[in-house]
Structures are given as C-alpha cells and as structure tokens.
Amino acid sequence: MSVQELFYSVEATISVEVTDGSWPDGFLGEFSASTDSLPDMKVNLLKCGDDKLPIDDDGKIQLTRKVVSVELEGFLRVSIMAHRVNGKRLKSREAVFAPKRSGTSSNSKIRVGSCRLEVTISWSLLAFGP
C-alpha cells in the first residue's frame, strides 16, 4: 500500500455503468485511477475474472474502491483494460477528467469490445481545519 500527501485536493467518487452491449467474453477486467501528479501510482478500482463484471440491478459496476483524492491542478484518469488469461490484450481505454470543487462529470464514450461504458465522477471539496 502506498500513501501520498496531496495538497489542494478534492474527493472523486467514481461510478462506472454499462450503457450498451456486454463485457467481452473470455476477458478479465482491470479498472484503475491515477492523477497527473502521481502518474505511476495507479489505484486499483476493480480486478475481475471469469469474464463477468460484478454489476448491480441498475447496470452499475460494483467497484471495490470508489473514492480517490485528486489535486485541483491536475487531471483524474480512469483506465479500463480487458485482457485474456493467456495475456492477449484489448486496447486499454481511458477517461480523463478535470477536477471540480463540486458537481459531476461524465464520459460515455468508453468502448471495450462491444461494451459501452459511462464513467461518472461526483466531486466533493475536502474540508481543511476546524
């Protein structure tokens, strides 16, 4: 586990929803997040196997981690990758978001095979001091 202090940051709550199609058969999934200030530190949001995504009744993927901190001066990158157990990889996809002090941002142009995904970020300003 790695820890890094971020200054002037906001909280990003990440949601990923399947909007069309289905996850590619026989592919494992990896979902991660990173920031410009720490590009080599990827936060694992979900690793799933058996070509099945954990999806709730609303079509939202049940991420194992949903919240990350992002510096206001950088960008949040949410990466989605599918690969076969034998290593064959579909091209990794990425949604990039400029942080906000509040509100939401979304990107519905993520495609992995025939699966279309929408990534939504809910932004919250972290309080400092008493």
From TrEMBL:
Annotated Pfam families: DUF6598
Domain of life of the source: Eukaryota
DUF6598 domain sequence ranges: 6-121
Protein name: DUF6598 domain-containing protein
Organism: Lolium multiflorum (Italian ryegrass)
